[in-house]
Amino acid sequence: MNDSSGWKDAYRDVIAEGRKRLDPPTVDEVEALFENKLPEAEAERVRKLLAYYPEMARAMIEPFPADTAGVLTAEELAADLAAIRRKTGITPAATQTPAATPAAAPTPVPKPLPFPKRLPRPAFAVAAGLIVVLAIGAIVAGLFKSGPAASIAVTRKVYPTDIGARGGASAPPPILLEQDRDYRLELVFTPDREYREYRLVFLDLGSAPARSLWSRDHEHPEQPGVYAVPLSTKKLPPGLYELVLYGLDDGEAEHLATFAIRVSS
After folding, report:
1. Would the pTM of this model clear 0.70, i.e. be above it?
2. pLDDT tens digits for range 75-90
3. Would you tell me how many other CB atoms lie within 10 Å of the CB of residue 241?
4. Which terminus of the chain, N or C, has less C-beta within 10 A?
5. What is the C-alpha to C-alpha distance for residues 153 and 184, in angstroms, rounded to an integer?
6. What pLDDT, on the 0 to 100 scale, is given for residue 144?
7. φ, ψ of residue 191 in degrees (nearest 5)
8. In 3-state terms, what secondary structure has residue 197?
9. Of 123, 149, 153, nearest to 233 (Cα)?
10. Which residues of the chain have pLDDT under 70?
11. What's the rounded Cα separation, in Å, for the pair 36 and 33?
């Protein structure tokens, strides 16, 4: 995952996930940040939000064009608005009742939006922009290495690898996970009947016999046939592992399915 395409994919994943969880900062908050008017705790919060909305930071630090080339005139803007109305079927109020309404006034030119607003202190703006860029880098780096940086669990579906031995279709190969990442595994298996609860056991196959790393009872499917399991590979050496699902009833444990996992460096 050290190639540029891997980092770009991770960056896009981080941005998309963050925008689902967090709304963008307000215009006033961004302007106050760049004018150094926020308390440190509030400034830190806005910087973290800007990490997921980098276009807002760019809009604050990019200079205005030196000339007006490419800026729409009032006539061009009115023509564009008329074209949009035709395409969307929206008729101006002036044309809906032509007999009773005096001639429509020329289409007013909308006032520019209050954002983006360029600030008179470009050095501070660039510095604040760099802070945002560093925040984005720290979040993306959290996907690849351990440490205090934020980390996002990647969801992966896992299917049983012992169905071939039970007379089913050919078993899929072990699911491949990378080191130093957080995962949210979704174990896909529908038992023949329901159990009071379920047990999950995580085994390290690198030792003989296989060594149990952890075991959890009182598990239940998140949705029918899907068992959600958070798993971090930050402390797991490369090798083969297994997640084993058991059904529990009256103290008896019945083996249901085995899910093979390979951790790579």
Report:
1. no
2. 776 776 677 666 555 5
3. 22
4. C
5. 6
6. 45
7. -70, 165
8. strand
9. 153
10. 1-8, 58-74, 77, 80-81, 84-152, 163-171
11. 5
- d(CA 174, CA 260) in angstroms, rounded, equals 5
Question: What six digits make up the tokens of 70?
Answer: 């490419």
Tokens of 197: 């609860």
Task: Report pLDDT for 30.
Answer: 82
Asked if 216 and 200 touch (Cβ cutoff 8 Å), the reply is yes
CB neighbour class for 90 (10 Å; exposed up to 12, middle 13-18, buried from 19): exposed
Residue with tokens 């058991």: 246
Per-residue b/e over 137-155, b at no fewer than 16 CB within 10 Å? eebbbbbbeeeeebbbebe
The helix (run of H) or strand (run of E) holding residue 168 is none
Task: State how far the Cα of 30 lies from the Cα of 14, in Å rounded to an integer.
Answer: 21
User: What phi-psi label fits residue 49: left (phi over 0), alpha (psi between -120 and 50 degrees) or beta?
Assistant: alpha
Token representation of residue 256: 């249901």
pLDDT of residue 190: 92
Q: Which amino acid type is present at position 84?
A: I
The predicted-structure confidence for 230-255, as pLDDT tens digits, reads as follows: 999 999 999 999 999 999 998 789 99
Name the DSSP letter for residue 68. Answer: -
| Contacts of residue 107, Cβ cutoff 8 Å, sequence gap at least 6 | 74, 77, 78, 81, 82
